[in-house]
Design goal:
This protein is of the alpha+beta class and about 220 residues long. It has helices at about 10, 45-50, 55-60, 110, 115-120, 185-215, and strands spanning about 20-25, 30-40, 65-75, 85-95, 95-105, 125-135, 140-155, 160-165. Strands 1-2-8-7-6-5-4-3 form an 8-stranded antiparallel beta sheet. Strand 4 and strand 5 (about 95-105) form a beta hairpin. Helix 2 crosses helix 6 (about 185-215). This is DAPG hydrolase PhiG domain-containing protein. Its cofactor is Zn(2+). Keywords: Hydrolase, Metal-binding, Zinc.
């Protein structure tokens, strides 16, 4: 299984032996992979979506059954700017309600300082990267427990999203605890990621052209 510090291999290999699956890495993180082809979507649309999404109504469009609540904290602009912001969500994963804080990071933290050059050379348009944590919605505290990367490659007629998660990297704990990730999360996250991105693909082009057009014309949302 691909280690977090090997994320750059994704740029070197268009398809790795495991594009959809899950398992323990050699450094004891739990790795979950999902791959979704998104017809009529582009990397630009994906970046726009993460800068656009905010409230629960919008979040439910993404997965009407599993997505329950959404809010945002920190920087966010409806022009693809979301790095440095935090998505606060309640969602079902593997049948269990998870309350999560997703803190978006610059792709350079995972792909190195020259990530833009690497992306261009490999045909990738963007990567949505972040630290994921268990969020206490009563007092606002969070314990970060994992990482996510949604790597987007533009392809004929659409784009392909290679979603990768590394679980068990717990803030304040010296050694990864991936072997303690429960079974429902291992399989459930793979299933959830595949479903939500397929659902998004069916709606994103229309949402993008509707709302982006209003933004560009100065009419807003």
């Amino acid at each position: 299984m691909l280690r977090l510090d090997e994320a750059g291999f994704l740029l070197e290999h268009e398809y790795l032996p495991i594009e959809t699956g899950h398992g323990l890495t050699s450094d004891n993180m739990y790795h979950v992979a999902a791959s979704t082809y998104m017809p009529n979507c582009t990397a630009e649309m994906i970046d726009w979506w993460f800068g656009f999404i905010h409230n629960t109504e919008q979040y439910k469009l993404w997965h009407p059954r599993d997505h329950i609540f959404s809010d945002w904290e920190g920087p966010r602009e409806n022009n693809s700017q979301y790095v440095g912001g935090h998505h606060l969500v309640h969602e079902y994963i593997g049948g269990k309600l998870a309350k999560l804080k997703i803190s978006f990071k610059d792709p350079g933290e995972y792909f190195g300082a020259n990530w833009r050059g690497g992306f261009e050379a490999s045909g990738y348009g963007t990567a949505v990267c972040g630290r994921v944590g268990a969020w206490n919605d009563r007092d606002g505290t969070v314990v970060y427990t994992g990482h996510l990367i949604h790597l987007i490659k533009n392809e004929p007629g659409g784009c392909r999203m290679r979603s990768r998660f590394w679980l068990g990297d717990i803030e304040g704990v010296p050694a990864p605890q991936g072997d303690k990730v429960p079974e429902f999360m291992r399989v459930g996250l793979m299933k959830h990621a595949t479903e939500e991105m397929a659902i998004l693909a069916s709606k994103l082009p229309g949402l993008y052209h509707k709302h982006r057009r209003g933004l560009v014309s100065g009419k807003g949302l």
